Every structure is written in structure tokens, then in C-alpha cells.
Amino acid sequence: MTTTIHAIGFHRGLPIDDPQSLVDLWIPAPEPGPRDLIVRPEAVSVNPVDIKVRQSSGPDEAGRVIGYDASGTVIAVGSQVSLFAAGDEVFYAGAIDRPGTNADLHAVDERIVGHKPQRLSHAEAAAMPLTSITAWESLFDHLRLGVTSDGTLLVVGGAGGVPSTLIQLARQLTGLTVIASASRPESARWVTELGAHHTIDHRHDLAGQLRLLAPDRLDYVFTSHTDTTLIATLAEAVRPFGQIVGIDDPAGLDMMPLKSRSLTWHWESMFSRSQYQTSDMVEQHHQLDTVSRLLDEGVLRTTLTTTLTGFDAATLREGHRLVESGKMIGKVVVSRS
């Protein structure tokens, strides 16, 4: 293998309009650990976590490479790898504490990698790993839902990447009634196509709309956009002993309004298993393989809506700009070709 590779990264956090916010780099080629795969990414997606890490990182003279989704081909394996072989097509989200996927070659632990869906292109597949794992863990690890589960689920910000996958999983693999919030007509159409039973506009009297659609109150909530106003609304809209999953990082959030109804709040971070090397880390491999099968069977659909072509800093900057706009429906992917 080559000793240096091309990658896209940054030296310090800068606004995305600055040409130095993401730059082309030459970095040492990764060496596989015992359970690592060396993958050539053919497509990567841009997630809000990419924006957060880029904006909040301090100076890095060598350059920091991010990227938390990829679809590509295994070109080498570590000495203890048992789940994959060179030549396999894979998709995965990677780890927050290792170099990211925005590189010509990428090292990733096999236990957080899935087999790429055969029916999907690399671009279509790259849209799915991070959002699928986050949605899966939210529904089935935290809320412990299953095919016989019923009740009502509110999905806040339904047109985003994770909610777009979570709506599909909830509709296809549970008996829940799904209410998705969407602030624009095109967003409402999108979440309806994905399977939401009802849509509401979170910009206008959310509490009043929920009283009409869920007069017996909500059983479950998933939110990727949390603030004090939402907490106050949920304190009234969720039944006693109901459950909420949050994935964002709201500053100074006061959760005391949830106490009187004994509501449970779950934090979800799909990086927890890899970051802390949990004993069940391989569950993410199984999750992705299940999602891959469901995509191949047509039970789930890719949430790719925008494809940018060109694996370079300028194209990645455009991807970041689109995500930072806050107007994305579904996912944006950067493909080599």
C-alpha cells in the first residue's frame, strides 16, 4: 500500500465560507489494527456531527480528518478480522475518536461495519449508516420497542437525516402511530412519503396540534432539536411514565418540568459503543446488516436527496454549507464519481 494518501480536513475551526475551513491534505496511510478493515470509501455523507466537530475543534497543525459515514470496498484486513474479507463492499459510520472517512483510505473496526446493500449505489448506501444506527438504538435499545408495540410516537424535525430513517423503522417494524413535525410543505410531503401517519408544524402552536392528534397524550418522543419551549410542551403532551429520546446538545436545558409525570429522558449517541469499546460493540455490525437487508428488500429506502460529485475540499465545503443551512431534507452525499 502507498505510504501517503489524499484526505480532506482542516487545521482549525473556521466558517464554512472560508476556503481554509476544509482543505486537501496528504496524510500517512492508515495501518490496520487487529480487528480493523482498510476501506476505500467511494462515497461519504455529511452529518450535523461533522459541522459540530469542525466548528468546535482547536488548532491542529497536521490537519484533522472528519467524516462519519462511508460506503466503499475493503482492500485489506487486520490479523483478527473474521466478519469481512478484501473485496467486500461495506457501509458504516466510523468512530468519533479516530480519523474520519473523508480520505482515500480509512481504517475502521469491523464490529461497527455492515455489508453494503446490494441494490443500492455507494452514494445511496453512504446516506444511511449513522442515521440508521442512531434511529435503531433510539427505538429498540432505549425505548425497547418491537413489532407488537403500540401507542403514539412524536418525531420532532421529521425531515432531518436521523428522523427520516427513524420514521421508516417505526412504521415498518412497530405498531406505533407516528406523528412527524415539519415546518415546510415539502418537508411535510417527505415525512408522509416515509410513512408518518400525521404531520404537524412545529413553528405554530405545537401543543394545540398535539392535543388534537393525541388527546390521550403521547407515549414516546424522539427529538433532534430540543429547547426549553419544547420541554415545556412535552411536559404536558406526554403521558405519565412516557419516554423521550434526545440526540442534540442543547445548552442549559432545564428538564425539571418532566419530573411530575415521571418521564424518562434517554440520551442517544451512536458513537458510545465504539468510543468506550463496549462488550456488545458488534451489535452495530448486526444492526447495519439488518438495515442492509431491509434496504435490499425495499422495506426501507435510502434518504439520499442530494449528491455532490468530486472527492475534494471544495465539494466537501459545499456539502457542509448545505447541512449548515438548516434546510436540508434527507441527506447530502459526496461521491467520487
UniProtKB/TrEMBL annotation:
<dbReference type="Pfam" id="PF08240">
    <property type="entry name" value="ADH_N"/>
</dbReference>
<keyword id="KW-0862">Zinc</keyword>
<dbReference type="InterPro" id="IPR036291">
    <property type="entry name" value="NAD(P)-bd_dom_sf"/>
</dbReference>
<dbReference type="InterPro" id="IPR020843">
    <property type="entry name" value="ER"/>
</dbReference>
<dbReference type="GO" id="GO:0016491">
    <property type="term" value="F:oxidoreductase activity"/>
</dbReference>
<comment type="similarity">
    <text>Belongs to the zinc-containing alcohol dehydrogenase family. Quinone oxidoreductase subfamily.</text>
</comment>
<dbReference type="GO" id="GO:0008270">
    <property type="term" value="F:zinc ion binding"/>
</dbReference>
<dbReference type="GO" id="GO:0016829">
    <property type="term" value="F:lyase activity"/>
</dbReference>
<keyword id="KW-0456">Lyase</keyword>
<dbReference type="Pfam" id="PF13602">
    <property type="entry name" value="ADH_zinc_N_2"/>
</dbReference>
<dbReference type="InterPro" id="IPR014182">
    <property type="entry name" value="ADH_Zn_typ-1"/>
</dbReference>
<dbReference type="InterPro" id="IPR011032">
    <property type="entry name" value="GroES-like_sf"/>
</dbReference>
<feature type="domain" description="Enoyl reductase (ER)">
    <location>
        <begin position="17"/>
        <end position="334"/>
    </location>
</feature>
<keyword id="KW-0479">Metal-binding</keyword>
<dbReference type="InterPro" id="IPR013154">
    <property type="entry name" value="ADH-like_N"/>
</dbReference>
<dbReference type="InterPro" id="IPR052585">
    <property type="entry name" value="Lipid_raft_assoc_Zn_ADH"/>
</dbReference>
<protein>
    <recommendedName>
        <fullName>Zinc-type alcohol dehydrogenase-like protein</fullName>
    </recommendedName>
</protein>
<keyword id="KW-0560">Oxidoreductase</keyword>
